[in-house]
Design the sequence.
């Protein structure tokens, strides 16, 4: 049984051959997924996979829904929302 802190699915096991010829298990963090647009699922530009060591200004685009919707989907949705708002008046 591995140590308590290694008993988690957020770590992946890799097998490493030591210089002495033994096969030992190493635990490493899983790769995070690429941020994708919530509507069209395209990979988002201007975002990072792992935001821990990156300054805040580089984590996602500085606009409403930045890092959640791509620019085209945001433009389309805003346009539709404005048309819908003023069509009844
Ligand atoms: Zn999109």
Sequence:
């Amino acid at each position: 049984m591995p140590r308590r802190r290694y008993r988690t699915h957020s770590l992946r096991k890799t097998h490493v051959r030591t210089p002495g010829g033994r096969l030992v298990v190493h635990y490493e963090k899983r790769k995070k997924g690429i941020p994708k647009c919530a509507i069209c699922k395209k990979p988002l530009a201007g975002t990072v996979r792992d935001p821990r060591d990156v300054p805040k200004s580089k984590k996602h685009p500085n606009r409403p829904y930045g890092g959640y919707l791509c620019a085209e989907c945001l433009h389309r949705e805003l346009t539709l929302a404005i048309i819908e708002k003023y069509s009844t008046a």
In short: Residues 1-30 form one domain. The mean pLDDT is 92.
